[in-house]
């Protein structure tokens, strides 16, 4: 009964071999279609920007144009929509879900991504201060709900699934806003050529281009009755209840996996040769990371060479070291241990990240550096972990308090001495400054 | 397993020695046991802990970096997110699995790409911005909310104590 995490997502764009043959035949047509639609799409985008949301024919016009672009939308059970309910929650199956739902119910999608402002605007997200922490964000959304007639649309799964096996665990923010939420289910299908709308490790732009390429994509949007939170439920219980209801409606299984699990799963696939994938139990939290993998690189790259594997082993130990340096050294040593030793010993090999200003704590690449895992995950930061808000407080003082050693001693004794010296220096410096300061104050 | 933990700790130790963040010094208490570290943290500028030098200890599991270290303040502290015995309540020290506060903050949870440096920087942020929602020290949380003046006074006293002045 239990759904494994692997079943939740599409691993390949193409469904089966029959589709591959069809695709080959269709390819020239698809290419022309994609180019044409790219230009039409540009116009649609401009129209959507110019026309105010309230204009009644806007929806009709846009819907026609979307059909031309290959998006066919079937809304159902619209009678369940209650205009007074300001929070809509939907499952997430493609990058354009919010656009499609926005066609039926003009809504506001709070931005929980860290996107550049232009992209943010172009994709139709609204910034509500998610980067400033959960409380600021929730307050902003609540305020919006009170003063605005347009509902807030949330994808509590936080990441896309294939919509075939299960729903990801819901994040709770959307359920903490108001007592009522309006669940909506979205299913996606592509008749004729069965290309998946979401694929693990695919970028936003890839997904969008395939949308223009395929003959058409059918969205079925079904409105479910409003759910009300009872007095005895907290946001978490409520979210689980709604997840169950939506899952039942779509005949899916609610799963305990979160969007973070998905990100981790994607990462894991990136470091495992495909043949091992089927035997690996996905629930086991495998924590091998290849943080410096460039974001564009497909995590599904198969056929790992022994060298790649060794590079990854070294990176696990030293995530800060750029790949090319490790590779260069491994090529001569051909041994993980020898390379680690060399890098530790050889000062010049490590580009001590000078640009890595202390306080910004960029450190090694964050686990969320791949584009497909960037959205939603970065959401709702607790105040202590939040780099952006707190780093401002950590601005280095003019009297620098950096106690760096000139070099990392090669013997244990040397290192210990240096450490003790630096500790003493830090303390002495702090004492001096403290006394100076209190003298000034008095 | 311990071998790769050692290598990783060594690499981090080197990084922290040659290029430490502002006001931080960290390293093994004694190199015979690389899994126990001591770190000195300077209270962030412009906060009530400014100027203090706080002693903390970090205990690493043998499967580090798969699991986070445990961190404890050895200097006396009074802070909403530090328990009376000095343990620190901060999301980066929790593995994504154990989840006391709702999973949305999993981005700040422990993962092998985090590091000692990031933990220490997070702790400094925590000193600067207490989070009175997850109160490890209820008295401190309450005082932080209701009587900021008094909180600052106590913090100032602790800063003085931390410098043994």
From TrEMBL, chain A:
Keywords: Endoplasmic reticulum, Lipid droplet, Membrane, Transmembrane, Transmembrane helix. GO terms for cellular component: endoplasmic reticulum membrane; lipid droplet. PROSITE patterns: CUE. InterPro entries: AUP1_CUE, CUE, LPCAT1-like, Plipid/glycerol_acylTrfase. It is a peripheral membrane protein. It holds the Pfam family CUE. Residues 306-348 form the CUE domain. Pathway: Phospholipid metabolism. One of its GO terms (biological process) is ERAD pathway. Residues 291-305, 388-401 have a biased composition (Low complexity). Residues 270-307, 383-420 are annotated as: Disordered. PANTHER family: ANCIENT UBIQUITOUS PROTEIN, LIPID DROPLET-REGULATING VLDL ASSEMBLY FACTOR AUP1. Belongs to the AUP1 family. This is Lipid droplet-regulating VLDL assembly factor AUP1. The lineage of its organism: Eukaryota, Metazoa, Echinodermata, Eleutherozoa, Echinozoa.
TrEMBL record, chain B:
The active site is at residue 89. It is an enzyme of class 2 (transferase). The keyword Transport does not apply. It comes from the Eukaryota. Keywords: ATP-binding, Nucleotide-binding, Transferase, Ubl conjugation pathway. Residues 4-164 form the UBC core domain. GO terms for cellular component: cytosol; endoplasmic reticulum. Accepts ubiquitin from the E1 complex and catalyzes its covalent attachment to other proteins. In vitro catalyzes 'Lys-48'-linked polyubiquitination. Involved in endoplasmic reticulum-associated degradation (ERAD). Required for sterol-induced ubiquitination of 3-hydroxy-3-methylglutaryl coenzyme A reductase and its subsequent proteasomal degradation. Belongs to the ubiquitin-conjugating enzyme family. This is Ubiquitin-conjugating enzyme E2 G2.
